[in-house]
Design brief:
alpha/beta; seven-stranded mixed sheet; 10% strand; 366 residues; 7 strands; AF1437-like domain fold
């Protein structure tokens, strides 16, 4: 009797942030621009406020709650779900994302998107990338909030806050003024008028990390068996959660809020290069990913000079062919786990340069 060897099925689960890794557009920022140039100013001041109170660890507040804080201004200016959908339709896809998702789907990866984005945007980008079922997209629901009537007496209060926020923009580094005025508006004035700013529950910060834990538990997998991909302050808790449990956290064109919490960095105008790490993960989990990452980091100049000679374990045939046909998109890989503080500063500098190239105006946001 011939013994039949059991083939071990390697678990393949990956979580993506949306804005940054998959689409360069910050959709909420673009929606605020429907108000006019003042809309962009309001968003930037509130985004600054979000960064400040997130980093101070204010109880009950999570990075990304900006998307709850701007809702009163949607209500003031009559911005609707259809407006958000219309703005989303203009959004580009990051170069290489369609290729990457096609490969991962063909290789039977379970793909999840965990995003602060409003559902109107997240589902649109998810559809374009073929993410199914829709329940694999965890995002911010806004529909009920926009349909709720806001007390008329609140509109004058919102209008006055809008005028003050525009004035604060000229002194945006004065964080004390920003915090004092916006604390009063969001948590005293609106609350007194019966409006709860947190009626919009944004999927950011710890809520992203919680979503990863819940999905892993439901699937019956360890966090060491997953990859998470993010780029900003809303992702750092998710990246840290996966990294500290032995999984792979990839910061893609990240900023100073995200880079220190990942164990792998990828800076590139094209996200297809992430497939090199996914391929390594299937072969040998974290150990193989870190080995491949380190090889790229130490030999990048040599790899760029002679792509044909890149070792087979450090590249896929498709990506080697892609590089050899065009040299404009050569990636940076970084082993962040072994980097000291000075090296991390250099990594952040590289990531920010590429980030601004890919995300343009949205790149300056936290």
């Amino acid at each position: 009797m011939i013994a039949v060897e059991k083939v071990h099925q390697v678990e393949k689960t990956i979580f993506f942030d949306l804005e940054g890794p998959l689409s360069p557009q910050d959709n909420a920022y673009e929606v605020m621009k429907l108000i006019g140039k003042e809309g962009a100013i309001i968003f930037e001041v509130i985004s600054k406020y979000d960064d400040i109170i997130s980093l101070e660890g204010r109880e009950g507040y999570e990075p990304g709650d900006t998307l709850a804080l701007i809702v009163p201004f949607f209500l003031l200016h009559g911005i609707t779900e259809d407006d958000i959908k219309r703005v989303s339709e203009r959004a580009k896809i990051v170069e290489g994302a369609e290729y990457l998702f096609g490969k991962l789907q063909a290789e039977n990866w379970d793909i999840y998107i965990i995003s602060t984005s409003y559902e109107q945007h997240a589902y649109n980008i998810g559809r374009k990338l073929g993410v199914v079922p829709e329940s694999n997209i965890i995002c911010t629901s806004l529909s009920k909030t926009l349909r709720d009537a806001i007390p008329k007496r609140a509109l004058d209060t919102i209008k006055k806050a809008e005028e003050d926020i525009i004035e604060l923009y000229s002194d945006i580094e004065n964080t004390e003024r920003i915090v004092n005025r916006l604390d009063d508006f969001f948590f005293s004035q609106l609350r007194a008028l019966g409006y709860d700013i947190f009626s919009t529950r944004v999927v950011g910060g710890e809520r992203k990390a919680k979503a990863v834990r819940q999905i892993a538990k439901k699937k019956g997998v360890m966090l060491s068996d997953v990859i998470a991909v993010g780029d900003s302050i809303t992702d750092y808790k998710m990246l840290n959660e996966v990294a500290t449990h032995g999984g792979i956290s990839v910061v893609f064109n990240g900023n100073e809020y995200a880079v220190p919490y990942a164990n792998v960095g990828l800076a590139s105008v094209d996200i297809r290069f992430l497939h090199i790490l996914c391929d390594a993960f299937v072969r040998g989990r974290k150990e193989e990913v870190m080995a491949v990452t380190t090889s790229w980091e130490e030999n990048r100049e040599e790899f760029e000079r002679s792509p044909f000679d890149i070792p087979d374990n450090c590249i896929t045939a498709d990506i080697r062919d892609f590089i050899m046909k065009q040299r404009k998109s050569f990636p940076y890989f970084h082993n962040i786990e072994r980097a000291d503080e000075i090296e991390k500063e250099e990594i952040i500098k590289i990531h920010k340069q590429v980030r601004m190239q890919v995300r343009e105006d949205a790149g300056k946001l936290g």
